[in-house]
Automatic annotation (TrEMBL):
<comment type="similarity">
    <text>Belongs to the class-I pyridoxal-phosphate-dependent aminotransferase family.</text>
</comment>
<dbReference type="InterPro" id="IPR004838">
    <property type="entry name" value="NHTrfase_class1_PyrdxlP-BS"/>
</dbReference>
<feature type="domain" description="Aminotransferase class I/classII large">
    <location>
        <begin position="32"/>
        <end position="392"/>
    </location>
</feature>
<protein>
    <recommendedName>
        <fullName>Aminotransferase</fullName>
        <ecNumber>2.6.1.-</ecNumber>
    </recommendedName>
</protein>
<dbReference type="InterPro" id="IPR015424">
    <property type="entry name" value="PyrdxlP-dep_Trfase"/>
</dbReference>
<dbReference type="Pfam" id="PF00155">
    <property type="entry name" value="Aminotran_1_2"/>
</dbReference>
<dbReference type="InterPro" id="IPR050596">
    <property type="entry name" value="AspAT/PAT-like"/>
</dbReference>
<keyword id="KW-0808">Transferase</keyword>
<dbReference type="InterPro" id="IPR004839">
    <property type="entry name" value="Aminotransferase_I/II_large"/>
</dbReference>
<dbReference type="GO" id="GO:0008483">
    <property type="term" value="F:transaminase activity"/>
</dbReference>
<dbReference type="InterPro" id="IPR015421">
    <property type="entry name" value="PyrdxlP-dep_Trfase_major"/>
</dbReference>
<keyword id="KW-0663">Pyridoxal phosphate</keyword>
<keyword id="KW-0032">Aminotransferase</keyword>
<dbReference type="InterPro" id="IPR015422">
    <property type="entry name" value="PyrdxlP-dep_Trfase_small"/>
</dbReference>
Amino acid sequence: MSFLARRLTRIKPSPTIAMTTRAAELRAEGRDIISLSAGEPDFDTPRHICEAGKAAIDAGHTRYTPVDGIASLKRAICDKFARENGLDYDPSQITVGTGGKQILFNALMATVDAGDEVIVPAPYWVSYPDMVLLAGGTPVIVECGVQDGFRLTPEALEKAITPRTRWLILNSPSNPSGAGYGREDMQALTDVLLRHPDVWVLSDDIYEHLVFDGFQFVTPAQVQPRLKDRVLTMNGVSKAYAMTGWRIGYGAGPEPLIRAMAKLQSQSTSNPCSISQHAAQAALTGPQDYVRESRAVFQRRRDLVVAGLNECPGIECPTPQGAFYVYPSIAGLIGLTSAGGTRIEDDRAFADALLDETGVAVVFGAAFGLSPHFRISYATGDDQLREAVTRIRRFCEGCG
Ligand SMILES: Cc1ncc(COP(=O)(O)O)c(C=O)c1O
């Protein structure tokens, strides 16, 4: 009999972390590796935010705080929602956790029972289905292909809803596709949801600020105020302010849900790091230059990567609206054999052969629930990106 709980057999380790670890191991062995697998900005946290963290230590903010966040940070989060999203929340409707990941985890653990269904459009962020499974629920995966711009259509949403549906998870702009829902797309979805009063929406807005070409970010509670009392809007400072290691995420939603999530957190991690909370407050209330500057850099890199990949035989790369990922199709390479002798049967074989033969680490599409694709994170320097694209092109040219 296994010592480990059965619930653990339902889930798998994060494939993106596995690929990043493998790339780091190969690099440690002396191989020339370009890792395009990690989902974090390559910039340092802006100076004024670091200074706020240091000041928090000097001021003695080194003790336990209220379980789901200090009052001043909750106030700053309310102001952020009002300023940037036109959403009016009271601090009692705000929860702060150890990264956006904990907010999602708390929400699903607090609400999903065995047999409950959660609609997850694919390609999806790798953790959604596994969190649903851990909670005992059933992820209902709805494939949203290139033809739909990787976006869930209202028809597909309507079809996926059953009497067991608890949540729809939306992530715009998306990890891994970079696809964003404009106001019209979002409204078409919220119209469907208005007809299904028992379905809640978990909106993962973590890439809100990384949008390009003037794309206007919207979030469901803003587009359809009548849904607000069944929407949990999740966000965080990791991607917007290059603060992945500080681990601060937050959610806004109806008070009973927020209280339930805090109850769960009180029996797991308690408060998120006190120092990080003060730094996150500085991020939300201080100058926003970094947000604008990083957006411009990411847009330039996106253009570089999309143009380069579309010159690779067998690859088609749509232009994403946001985040720092592209999700190209390798349909044109399936069935071919690489110069190193690997038959490219699927996107996993492609990613493995690409790493072995060229040293470029990407994540295969099956990890995100939609094949045959792969994900590139372009949160890395321009020179590395140019070199990676050149290697990918040579790899594709060598396939036959
Ligand atoms: C779509 C999405 N949601 C949530 C997260 C979690 O972010 P964090 O826990 O660092 O705030 C990530 C991180 O990769 C993500 O890509």
